[in-house]
Each structure stands twice: as structure tokens, then as C-alpha cells.
């Protein structure tokens, strides 16, 4: 985690401490879908074993933010995922032997946000850590009739922090050059969709595959 991210989280927690009503928004997965509330959602806060993936899953610190945006995308597009859509994000522990380490690191990251001795703005991973960073994202869709769909997104060539800056840049270029429409508070998926996916695949080195 970078110091800027930690500082943003600390400021959010401080605001919630001053105004407890904000806690309801922070914990509501449908905080960004005004007038619509879907079904009860998975908490994603408790480590669990997923038999379908044959792996242990642990909490992902960014999930409370990401899940809200996914539900907003579904909302803005007229609920193509369904009004009964349920969504969560968790991290896969590489193996049972790694479960304790990953859970401990995740807990330490969250705890550091509450203290003054944690990361400061400007601090973060070293250049070597950034260059060795990677991501491998598995999307699993489970339908009510038992069918299951899986898709994978990975970085290619520069999959660490550099890939993040590429995605941000391509989003900006897509917004300026290829998207026509009115203003508003959108999500990339709802506003740019296929056009952005094409850019990320061709220009940012992301790989999209179904399995």
C-alpha cells in the first residue's frame, strides 16, 4: 500500500468518527445506488474456504470501495447483472501454509490505517517491489441454475504499479476521444465499457480470457 492510500483511508475514518452517520454509508454496498437496495451481500470480512476454487480466501482491503462501484455500474446500466446480483471481492491465499501469513499481512495493513505511526504520504513500496508487483484477477459468476462462468484478467509485460498508471491514462484518453454523452458521476464500466476494454487490451497489456 502507498502512503497516499493510507492517508485517504485515515481521513475517511476520522470523518466517520466525527459523524457516525457516515459509518452507515461506508458499510452499505448500495451507498452509490440511490433509490435502489439489492439483496443481502457477502461480507467478505471473514476468511473462508471456497470448495469451487479449492482455496482459502482472505479479506481484501479495497473490497468495501470496489464493491460499491460494481453495484453502481450495474445500477447505471439498468441492472444487466440482475436486481438480485450479489458481489464480493477476496484474496486467494496461495496455500494453506500461506494462510496465516496472508491473513496477518492483511490485518497489519488495516491496523496501520488507525495509527499515527503507519505509512506517510509519499511512502510506499520500493522501486524493486513495484517492478516485481503483479496481479491475477479471477472473476467467478455463479448463476441460480448452478451454471458457473469464470474469466481472468492479468497484466502483461509491466503488471505491477506501472500497469495502474497505464490503465488510468488509457481511461482518460478513452473518455476524451471515444466517449460521447452527457456529464455525470459514472463508473468506467458503465460509461466506457467495450471501448475502454479494447484500449486496455491493446495498449496497456492486459489479458482478458474466459475459462
Helical residue percent band: 40-55%
- Average pLDDT confidence is 84
Query: Strand tally, please?
Result: 6
Rg (C-alpha, Å): 18 Å
Please tell me what the overall shape is: globular
| Helical run tally | 8
Structural class, from helix and strand content?
alpha+beta
**Unreliable segments (pLDDT under 50, ≥5 consecutive)?**
none
Proportion of beta-strand residues:
5-15%
Distance between the termini: 30 Å
How are strands sequenced across the largest beta sheet? Answer: 1-2-3
What summary fits the major beta sheet? Answer: 3 strands, antiparallel
Overall tally of structural domains: 2
Succession of helices and strands = HHEEHEHHEEHHHE
Oligomerization category of the chains in this entry: single chain
Q: What does this protein look like?
A:
The protein has helices spanning 3-18, 21-27, 63-76, 96-112, 127-132, 161-177, 188-191, 193-202, and strands at residues 48-50, 55-59, 90-92, 136-142, 148-155, 206-210. By secondary structure, it is α+β, with helices and mostly antiparallel strands. It has two domains: 1-25 and 39-124, no CATH class; 127-211, no CATH class. A three-stranded antiparallel β-sheet has the order 1-2-3, covered by helices on one side. A hairpin with a 4-residue loop joins strand 1 (48-50) and strand 2. Helix 6 (161-177) packs across helix 8 (193-202). The radius of gyration is 18 Å and the shape is globular.
Amino acid at each position: 500500500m502507498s502512503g497516499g492510500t493510507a492517508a485517504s483511508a485515515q481521513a475517511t475514518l476520522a470523518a466517520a468518527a466525527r459523524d457516525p452517520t457516515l459509518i452507515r454509508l461506508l458499510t452499505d454496498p448500495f451507498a452509490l445506488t440511490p433509490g435502489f437496495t439489492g439483496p443481502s451481500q457477502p461480507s467478505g470480512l471473514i476468511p473462508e474456504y471456497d470448495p469451487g476454487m479449492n482455496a482459502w480466501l482472505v479479506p481484501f482491503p479495497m473490497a468495501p470501495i470496489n464493491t460499491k462501484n460494481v453495484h453502481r455500474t450495474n445500477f447505471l446500466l439498468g441492472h444487466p447483472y440482475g436486481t438480485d446480483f450479489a458481489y464480493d471481492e477476496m484474496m486467494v491465499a496461495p496455500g494453506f501454509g500461506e494462510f496465516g501469513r496472508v491473513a496477518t499481512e492483511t490485518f497489519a495493513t488495516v491496523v496501520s490505517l488507525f495509527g499515527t505511526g503507519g505509512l506517510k504520504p509519499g511512502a510506499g513500496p520500493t522501486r524493486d517491489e513495484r517492478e516485481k508487483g503483479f496481479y491475477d484477477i479471477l472473476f467467478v459468476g455463479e448463476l441460480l441454475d448452478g451454471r458457473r462462468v469464470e474469466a481472468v484478467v492479468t497484466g502483461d509485460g509491466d503488471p505491477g504499479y506501472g500497469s495502474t498508471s497505464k490503465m488510468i491514462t488509457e481511461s482518460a484518453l478513452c473518455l476524451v476521444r471515444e466517449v460521447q454523452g452527457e456529464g455525470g458521476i459514472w463508473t468506467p464500466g458503465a460509461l466506457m465499457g467495450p471501448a475502454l476494454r479494447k484500449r486496455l487490451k491493446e495498449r496497456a497489456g492486459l489479458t482478458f480470457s474466459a475459462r
